[in-house]
Amino acid sequence: MAFRPLRASLPVAAAASTARPESPDQNLSRKPIYDDVSLNRRSKTRSPLEPPQSLPPTPTDRLAAQVRRARLFVYAHARAAEDRVDSFMSFVLIHERTFTRTVASLAPPPESQERLIPGSLYVLVAAMTGSIVSRNRNLLLRATVPAAVGLGAAWVVLPLTMRNVGDLVWTYEEKMPVVSLNHLRVRGAVEEAVKQSKSAYTRVRGAIEQGVKESREAVEGWVSKGK
Questions:
Q1: What is the dihedral of CA 42, 44, 45, 50, to 10 degrees?
Q2: 84: exposed, middle or buried (C-beta count within 10 Å: 0-12, 13-18, 19+)?
Q3: CA quadruple 85, 90, 91, 93: dihedral positive or negative?
Q4: Over the range 176-214, which residues count as b (16 or more CB within 10 Å of their CB) and which as e?
Q5: I want to staple 119 with a disulfide (CB 3.0 to 4.6 A). Which of 79, 82, 158, 215 is the partner?
Q6: How far apart are the first and last CA of the chain?
Q7: Distance in angstroms (rounded) separating the CA atoms of residues 30 and 24
Q8: How many other C-beta atoms can be found within 10 angstroms of the C-beta atom of residue 127?
Q9: Which string of DSSP letters, residue by residue, matches 148-166?
Q10: Is 29 helix (H, G, I), strand (E, B) or coil?
C-alpha cells in the first residue's frame, strides 16, 4: 500500500477550507467595499427640512452689498433734500399768497370814488410840504411834522384805505396786549381831543357869528339913525 506525502495534501485542505460556504451571520457582518461610498453619499444628501448651510460671501456679493448701501444713502439724502425744497417752496407760496391777499384787502372797493394813484401823490406832496415848513425848526419838529401832515392828508384824501390800514395794524396789535392797550389809550385821547376841538371850534364860530351879527345890526342902526 502506497502512501502520498503529507505536503501534497495541505494545499488541497487549505483550498477546501477557503472554499467552504459562509454562514448568514458572516454575510451580514461583512459589507462590500462600495458601502462606504454609498454611506458617504447618503450623509451628504440632506433632507429638505434641514436649514441650508451658510456659505461665505463672495467678492461679488460684497460688492453688491456695498452698492446697495451707497444707493440707499444717496436715495435717503436726495429724498431729504427734496422734502426741504418742497417745504421751502410751500412756505414761500403761502407767505406770497398771504401778502397779496393783505395788499388787495387794503384797496378801496371798486364802487367808491377813491383812487390810489392821485391820492397817494397828494399825500406825498403834503408830507414834502410839512418837511419844507419844518426844515428850520428843531429835530423833533422836523421828524414829526411831515409824518403828521402826511397822515392827516391820507385820512382826508384816502379815508377808506387808511381805515383798512388801521384795521390791519390793529390785527397785529391784538397779538401784543400792551401795545393794543396803549393804542386804545392814545386813540381815546386823540378822539377826545378832536371832539373837544370840534366843540370849541363850534362855540368860537357861534360867538364870532353872533358878534358879527350884533356889530352889523349896530352899524345898520347907526346908519338908519343918521339918515
A1: 120
A2: exposed
A3: positive
A4: eeeeeeebeeeeeeeeeeeeeeeeeeeeeeeeeeeeeee
A5: 158
A6: 224
A7: 10
A8: 20
A9: HHHHHHHHHH-HHHHHHHH
A10: helix
Grid coordinates representing 67? 452698492
Q: What are the tens digits of pLDDT across the range 1-47?
A: 444 444 444 444 444 444 444 444 444 455 555 445 444 444 445 55
Cell of 175: 397779538
CA angle 136, 141, 145 (to 5 degrees): 105
Please report the pLDDT score of residue 108 as a whole number: 85
Does the predicted model carry a pTM greater than 0.90?
A: no
C-alpha Rg value of the chain to the nearest Å: 59
> 149, 159 in Cβ contact below 8 A?
no
Quick one: how many helices (H) and strands (E) in the chain? 8, 0
CA distance 211 to 205: 10
Distance CA 33, CA 37 (A): 8
Q: Which three cell numbers stand for residue 106?
A: 387794503
**Helix, strand or coil, per DSSP, at residue 126:** helix
Please name the residues in contact with 124: beta carbons below 8 A apart, sequence gap of 6 or more: 150
**Cα dihedral value 214, 219, 224, 227, nearest 10:** 170
